[in-house]
Amino acid sequence: DSKTKNELVNEVLETVELEAIKDSMVGLPGISGLSTEQRKRLTIAVELVANPSIIFMDEPTTGLDARAAAIVMRAVKNVAETGRTVVCTIHQP
């Protein structure tokens, strides 16, 4: 039902720490809308609304500076803490 869907979406937004910008336009990187790091977290969120028990991520921090990569990895950690299995490859610590 609609309420359950909204609850799931809100839970996912909270998990990937995007609730503060939930009504923002995605836009073009660097011009308007979400930053590259926010777009990476949005990509994770889009997958999570299907409520998978396992999620595979291939280099989710590629193209990000250290600060942005840390934010994305914190979101990945939050996903794992929901009980989902996360398989992730990264080249950066």
Brief overview:
The protein is 45% helix and 11% strand. It is mainly alpha-helical.
What does this structure look like?
Residues 5-62 form the ABC transporter domain. This protein has a single domain, classed as P-loop containing nucleotide triphosphate hydrolases (Rossmann fold, 3-Layer(aba) Sandwich), CATH 3.40.50.300. Helices cover 45% and strands 11% of the residues. The protein has three helices and two strands; from the N terminus they run ααβαβ. Strands 1-2 form a two-stranded parallel ribbon. The N and C termini lie far apart (41 Å).
How are the SSEs ordered, and which strands pair?
Elements: H1 2-15, H2 36-48, E1 54-58, H3 66-80, E2 85-89
Parallel strand pairs: 1-2
Proportion of residues in β-strands: 5-15%
**What structural class do helix, strand and pairing data support?**
mainly alpha
Low-confidence stretches: none
Shape: globular
CATH superfamily: P-loop containing nucleotide triphosphate hydrolases
Report on the biggest sheet: 2 strands, parallel
Our count of helices gives 3
